[in-house]
Give the backbone structure.
Amino acid sequence: MSPPDDAQPLALEITLFTFKEGLLARAAHDLQLHVERVEARLCSGNRLAIKVDPLSIQVDGAVVHGEVHADILSAANRREIQHTLQETVLKVASYPMLRFDGKFEESSSFVEVHGTLELCGVQQTLTTRAHAKEGALFAEFEIRPSAFGIQPFRALMGAIRVQDRVVVKIRAVRPSLNSASASARCPP
């Protein structure tokens, strides 16, 4: 069966937050990251298909008292964090794509999204709600990396650790009905 060609591109901005813990947590940083390459499609039957290139996850900076500080981390710190994320945590050589396939249901006050998130070859059910604000849809949810077989990062024999939770914030901008790209395709 060939994929339907009724897809509409969906512009997504994905921001990720990680959190430190442990005896020496004061020496570490909570982090904000963002995804630079994401492909999202709205498909017939209220289907949603999202692909994220894990190599495009970039470190924005350290989060201190709710504010991102890009200047706290050196270029070497950023490279080390990205290398660890790509090679040790997400294992991009073996798992070059993160995927979400699901459906969405619209109500008058929110959009409920439910489907399957695949991360490091492991699939887990994910359900979240997006709320409209300022012409876009906003969703926020947490994932537990250990549910996908990912061990939380540890340093100094566990005295510094990353919590087993990642907060994901998504901003989605819907296309107009005439904006579907001729090259956009939905998965079968």
